[in-house]
Amino acid sequence: MTPLRARFERDLRLRGRSERTIHCYCGCVAALARYYRRSPDELSYEQAADWLHHLIRERRQAPNTVNIAVNALRFLYGQTLHRDLNELQARVPRLKRDTKRANVYATSEVTAILTAPRAPRRRDRHCRGCRFAISR
After folding, report:
1. For residue 21, what are the contacts with CB-CB under 8 A and spacing of at least 6?
2. pLDDT digits over 41-78, tens only?
3. Nearest-angstrom CA–CA distance, 39 and 70
4. How far is it, in rounded angstroms, from Cα 55 to Cα 53?
5. pTM score > 0.85 for this model?
6. Residues of the chain below pLDDT 50
7. In this structure, is the dihedral angle defined by the CA atoms of residues 57, 53, 92 and 82, taken in order, positive or negative?
8. Which CATH superfamily groups domain 3-91?
9. Helices 3-14 + 19-36 axis angle, to 10
C-alpha cells in the first residue's frame, strides 16, 4: 500500500466514512492513477476533469457513479492533500441525477379504478400448507 493510499484511508476513517465508502473512494482514486499511470497527487485538476469526461463519454457511467468519483476526488484533494477546493469545484462539478417521475393516470382511468366492483371474497379457501378448509 502506498503512503498516499494509507493516508487517504486514514482520513476517510477519521471522518467516520463507512467501509463501503472507503472501498469505493479508494477504487475511484486507484482507477484515476491507472488511467494516467501516475500518482494522483501529481495530477492536475484538468487531468481529473478529463478522466471524469472519459467515464461519462467512453465508459458511459451513470451520473450517480460519476458523482461518487467526483466526491472521492474532492475528498482526496481537499482533505488528504490539502489543496484549494474552489478551483477543483469549478473544474469538476457534480452531475445532475436522473429524476424518476411518477405515472400519471387520466381522469377516466382513475374513475374506472374507483368504480370497479370488488371481487367477492371466498370464505371456503384452504389455508396454506393444510388440507383442511377454513371455516367461519
Report:
1. 12
2. 999 989 999 999 999 999 999 999 999 999 999 999 99
3. 17
4. 5
5. no
6. 136
7. positive
8. Tyrosine recombinase, N-terminal domain (1.10.150.130)
9. 150
